[in-house]
Specification:
Radius of gyration: 22 Å
Number of helices: 9
Oligomer: single chain
Order of helices and strands: EEEEEEHEEHEEEHHHHHHH
Low-confidence stretches: 1-12
Distance between the termini: 63 Å
Largest sheet: 5 strands, mixed
Helix content: 25-40%
Number of strands: 11
Strand order of the largest sheet: 6-5-9-7-8
Structural class: alpha+beta
Length: 262
């Protein structure tokens, strides 16, 4: 059996939007969202919405429901919705997460039916849950995140052993969602710090046996805004939706710098 919610007015200005039927097993949850429109707001503020949710719904489903049926002015990023693109990184109950990966049942139950969604910290706020990612990508580009080789182009495939591949396999999983970097207290206070994600990107090539630009990257990361800014709080590792051992990668880069040995 399903019941249909009473029509509500969508933010699109096109009049009442017909709400879909509420599926069996759904509960009504309250979603507190940080809202900010630079055209009308001086500072961010919170707005709350009551929406139906199944235990297997993801937080992204709730955001899309709000935008589609309650308030079309809500702004947030999303793309693949499968934890691959990293577009929908937000703070959920104070923790950096991907909205498309967090299930309702993981953070709510019959006694706790509220969730707070905010934009990630440390990057300029543009609107609602959207931040300016350019400072993040500028740091990423600064570490030369691509294969560097010198001399003649090889005439055949460059063979790499499994052991050599295993050396940097973990850091190939990064999807550039910025969850790790924007969970770092140092990044919040030091605008010039390259951040964990950039160091992870550098690690992926520094320890690649096929690459010949490791020393260049180590020089980049050895300056005052590089790897030594890390205070080893493990926030980055905890925040990574891909399970990358970010702190471990940072420590390996530090050791490579101290001993100048890859």
């Amino acid at each position: 059996m399903t019941v249909t919610l009473e029509n509500n007015t969508a933010g699109s200005g096109q009049g009442p939007a017909p709400l879909p039927p509420v599926p069996d097993g759904a509960i009504m949850v309250t979603v507190h969202i940080q809202r900010y429109n630079p055209e009308v707001d001086d500072v961010p503020h919170k707005e709350s919405y009551r929406v139906p949710a199944l235990p297997t719904d993801r937080i992204l489903n709730l955001l899309q429901y709000i935008k589609g049926y309650i308030d079309g002015s809500l702004s947030f990023r999303r793309s693949c919705a499968h934890g691959v693109c990293g577009s929908d990184a937000v703070r959920i109950n104070g923790r950096n997460r991907l909205a498309c990966k967090v299930l309702v049942k993981d953070i709510m139950d019959a006694k706790n039916t509220e969730v707070t969604v905010e934009p990630i910290k440390g990057l300029p706020l543009e609107k609602d849950l959207i931040v300016d990612m350019e400072p993040f990508f500028e740091a990423f580009r600064a570490v030369k995140p691509y294969l560097i080789t010198y001399g003649n182009e090889p005439s055949r495939e460059w063979i790499q052993s499994q052991a050599d591949r295993d050396r940097f396999d973990d850091t190939t999983k990064c999807i550039l969602c910025a969850c790790c970097t924007t969970s770092c207290p140092v990044y919040w206070s030091e605008d010039a710090y390259v951040g964990p994600a950039a160091i992870v990107a550098a690690h992926r090539f520094i320890f690649d046996s096929r690459d010949q630009g490791s020393q260049e990257r180590l020089e980049i990361l050895s300056d005052s805004e590089g790897v030594w800014r890390c205070r080893t709080t493990f926030n980055c590792t905890d925040a990574c939706p891909r399970g990358i051992q970010v702190t471990k990668a940072i420590q390996e880069v530090k050791r490579a710098l101290m001993f100048r040995r890859i």
